[in-house]
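Homework help board

Subject: predicted structure for assignment chain

Our instructor gave us this sequence and asked us to write out the predicted structure in token form, then describe one feature. I got the tokens but I'm not sure how to describe them. Can anyone check?
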Amino acid sequence: MSDTQFDVKKYIRAQFFPHMWCPGCGHGIVMSALLRAIDDLGLKNDDVSVVSGIGCSSRISGYLDFNTAHTMHGRALPTATGVKLANPNLKVIVPFGDGDSTAIGGNHFIHACRRNIDITAIVMNNRIYGMTGGQYSPMSGCGVKASTAPYGVPDRAFDLVELAKGAGATFVARTTVYHAKEAQNTIKKAIEHKGFSVVEILSMCPTQFGRKNKAGEAPQMMEWYKEATVPMGSKKLEENPDLIQRGVFVDEDVPEYCEVYQTNVIDKVMKKG
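My token output:
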């Protein structure tokens, strides 16, 4: 569907607005891209399940009028796995933050990648714990200042794309909130993919990350995403290999977990019965 036909009211729980995100937060752009992708695909509200954990980004599930669950910190993926196994026909989407997905939820993340269950994981990476006080996350990176690292983070950051690839995810992509239309199209491809899809979206947090790291307000942080990222294979990488690549890094056709489980477990048990 075209943008002129897009009606956000079909997809939101208006009684929970205005939202709780700080001015300049990138998560609203991610939510918009997600809803536009769902609208493009022509999915009905009852065809979709949105499961989230805890954090600023995870509030998305409460704002959307789908089959939703707001679960415990780090436990969105096991809950979503149960939803998908119970009803494989649902399009299950998990929007969560960098800490929720790769710190307390890191073990669940790598095993969801390994299983290749048909879930779309959208990781909103603002490199900080926004809701709980600005602690550093596994995605913060060396030198970043946070409430738990006032002199700079000593740890190296995960590369989420490489982590997802190494763990076996069959669709892996990265984009930013500056590239909103690109984010919409990437999420659309991820939902259409049959298997575990990971979409990392670089999203700014002016309140916790921006202030502590003198990164400016939201416009300056958005400008950084424009300047510091390039499409995969860009010639600019030859001049500056530190630029962050955007695009679809993995798109493989591998047997999906629910289908394998049906064939290898359920059908065999039913025959014995």
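Reply (TA_rk): Your tokens look well-formed. For the description, you could write something like this. Residues 3-272 form a domain with the Rossmann fold fold (CATH 3.40.50.970). That's the kind of observation they're looking for.
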